[in-house]
Specification:
binds flavin mononucleotide; EC 1.12.1.3; binds iron/sulfur cluster
């Protein structure tokens, strides 16, 4: 039981002392990506071998003859999911990638016993071929600034003392013993911490509004719904460093005068739910949640609420309705959540990453936070990098970094030597950015000006083979299905927009359709009740703005320039390349290809059923798709 600040400091010191006895620490990534890749089997094999040889108790590894322990432990996500399962060996920081259970023996024999590095398990740069031993030197990590993710991959998320030993709960102790609730709000305000859930609203203003509300009962709610396709930042924080989220919420509770907190986490994140539940249990057992925390008179407890996986439930008022047991539908504002949120009481609602930023701001001060990022968007942002990119994974970068740095320096560029075409930022609420935005600083305001938004931080990279009309159709299909149906512009508008986009990709679109699509997009944006409808048009509007020629090609020429839209695909034979061998006409199931031997053959596009058999059969690459 940690009864006061002194106890907390002693617990941290004891953990650090214990670490000194540890010669080597083997951290095996237990994030969702690595677990899916078999990392828990790797963990079991290494642990078994270490135990079988008695290495976990005493082993002579130190050059000076000291006997040191080896600790084998699961960890949170390192972010480099592409290279998983990942094993990190401290203190040297040796970083092994794509580790299989069969590698366990070599890791124990060669690295743990002899202290040597296994070359084949090191990360190898796909272009330069250079091998990297430590994580810190790898291009994927070099431009990152890991604050909220700093413990992910470094500590065992299921052990509260690992968090405490790394200064965890020290910010809580500081606010409870040295600061007033008003002072806490002031520091968050001064740091200009803006909500990481997408909107970028200043957290300090929100916290102070709840603080000023005159109510006996107030709530703190953490939004861990993360419904955007392609996003997994919040999941990694909840899985990899759950106590950081709890600490941020506890500090918010103290600052706002709330005694109860809820974490709303989607049920599709079972590992995050499990780790959060374990963290809450441990924090309660050790007196960091519950009554009279650290003997300061402050009481606060947290409940975990599993969401049912509807995108709209991430919207603040729908989320509180869902926690109350009602259907998750947004409501009109005012009253705002800060005045009347959960059960009609003043409620402080923030995103997972927003809360995770709080402990370090308290410990290091507002100036430290303002020293990163841009003046109006300070700090860092976690992004989930996916799509046509060499290094997919989770990254944390200073706000204001450019797309070019993210895509080429961190992401390693586009695979297969293909050209970059666009990036969809912020999921269905965001928009598409293009080559011309390569040097745009990624911050709240610059993105808004470009018609997009950071959203929760999903970055889906697309290469030259992507059809931007199809991309707009994909996102419209998503938002239309996720619309709660409460208000007409969103319910009907998204449906009509989807119908138009479907007409265009199937080759039946008209010029009037494009005009109507734009008109509807603006109506839905302006007339919808909540953010889902208000932002649903963003992928359409940005693709119309930046890739208008692709819409025109689909409508006027009945062509899909990227060759994606099946209905618009057509085949033709290049007479220059065709040798008249007749192989294609023999495989065509509908006799669409005719010609004379040793003369160029032709395809009847009316008859062609677009099976593609002729393309793969032609030995001279004479059949063209387009
Ligand atoms: C349709 C919709 C879905 C949303 N989904 C999320 C979500 O998954 N996570 C989140 O933090 N915020 C989400 N938001 C934003 C929240 O309404 C709210 O602004 C945010 O949780 C506040 O926290 P922040 O200020 O720390 O960003 C969503 C908003 C809308 C309109
Ligand atoms: S905008 Fe869409 S999701 Fe939001 S309340 Fe209206 S119908 Fe529901
Ligand atoms: S795509 Fe199929 S149907 Fe069309 S011409 Fe080639 S082989 Fe015939």
């Amino acid at each position: 039981m940690i009864k006061d600040r002194g106890d907390l400091e002693r617990a941290a010191a004891a953990w650090r002392e214990e670490q000194k006895k540890c010669g080597l620490k083997v951290l095996i990534c237990a994030g969702t990506g690595c677990v899916a890749g078999g990392s828990m089997e790797v963990y079991r094999r290494i642990k078994e071998l270490v135990e079988a040889e008695g290495l976990n108790t005493l082993v002579d590894l130190d050059k000076h003859g000291d006997s040191k322990k080896i600790r084998v432990s699961p960890s949170g996500c390192h972010g480099f999911c592409e290279m998983g399962p990942i094993v990190r060996i401290e203190p040297k920081g040796i970083f092994y990638t794509k580790v299989k259970p069969e590698d366990a023996e070599d890791i124990v024999e060669i690295t743990l016993k002899k202290g040597e590095v296994i070359d084949r398990l090191l990360y190898r740069h796909p272009v330069t071929g250079e091998r990297y031993i430590e994580e810190e030197n790898m291009p994927f990590y070099k431009k990152q600034k890991r604050n909220v993710l700093k413990n992910c991959g470094r500590i065992n998320p299921e052990d509260i003392f690992e968090y405490i030993g790394n200064n965890g709960y020290h910010a809580l102790a500081k606010v409870l013993t040295e600061m007033t609730p008003e002072g806490v709000c002031q520091i968050i305000n001064k740091a200009n911490l803006r909500g990481r859930g997408g909107g970028g609203f200043p957290a300090g203003i929100k916290w102070d509004s709840v603080r000023k509300e005159n109510s006996e009962i107030k709530y703190v709610v953490c939004n861990g719904d993360e419904g955007d396709p392609g996003a997994f930042m919040d999941r990694s924080i909840m899985e990899g460093d759950p106590h950081r989220v709890l600490e941020g919420m506890l500090i918010a509770g103290y600052a706002s005068g709330a005694k109860e907190g809820y974490i709303y986490v989607r049920a599709e994140y079972p590992l995050a739910v499990k780790r959060l539940q374990k963290a809450v249990k441990q924090a309660r057992e050790h007196g960091l949640l519950g009554e009279n925390i650290l003997s300061t008179g402050f009481s606060f407890d947290i409940k975990i609420n599993k969401g049912a996986g509807a995108f709209v439930c991430g919207e603040g008022s729908a989320l509180t309705a869902s926690i109350e047991g009602n259907r998750g539908m947004p409501r009109t504002k005012p009253p705002r959540t800060v005045q009347a949120g959960l059960w009609g009481k003043p409620t402080l609602l923030n995103n997972v990453e927003t809360f995770a930023n709080v402990p370090d701001i308290i410990i290091n001060g507002a100036e430290w936070f303002l020293g990163m990022g841009t003046p109006n968007s300070p700090g860092t942002k976690a992004f989930a990098l996916t799509g046509n990119i060499v290094n997919t994974g989770l990254i944390e970068v200073p706000m204001g970094i450019t797309l070019r740095e993210i895509i080429y320096d961190i992401g390693g560029g586009i695979p297969g030597g293909k050209e970059f075409k666009a990036v969809q930022i912020g999921g269905p609420s965001g928009g598409c950015l293009t080559k011309k935005h390569m040097d745009l600083p990624l911050d709240f305001d610059s993105l808004e000006k470009a018609g997009a938004m950071i959203g929760s931080g999903g970055l889906v990279v697309m290469d030259e083979d992507a059809c931007m009309v199809e991309v707009a159709r994909f996102f419209m299909d998503f938002t239309q299905k996720e619309s709660c149906g409460k208000c007409v512009p969103c319910r009907e508008g998204t449906k009509r927009m989807l119908e138009i986009l479907e007409r265009i990709v199937s080759g039946n679109g008209t010029m009037e359709d494009i005009e109507l699509l734009e008109e509807l997009a603006i109506t839905v944006k302006t007339g919808s009740l909540c953010g889902l409808g208000k932002t649903a048009a963003n992928p359409v509007l940005t693709t119309l703005k930046y890739f208008g020629d692709e819409y025109l090609a689909h409508v006027k020429e009945k062509k899909c320039p990227a060759g994606v839209c099946r209905a618009l695909k057509g085949y033709s034979i290049d007479p220059e390349k065709c040798k008249g061998c007749s192989k294609c006409s023999k495989v065509c199931p509908v006799n669409a290809i005719t010609g004379k031997i040793k003369q160029a053959f032709t395809i009847d596009r009316e008859k062609c059923i677009k099976c593609g058999a002729c393309v793969s059969t032609c030995p001279f690459n004479a059949v063209e798709e387009g």
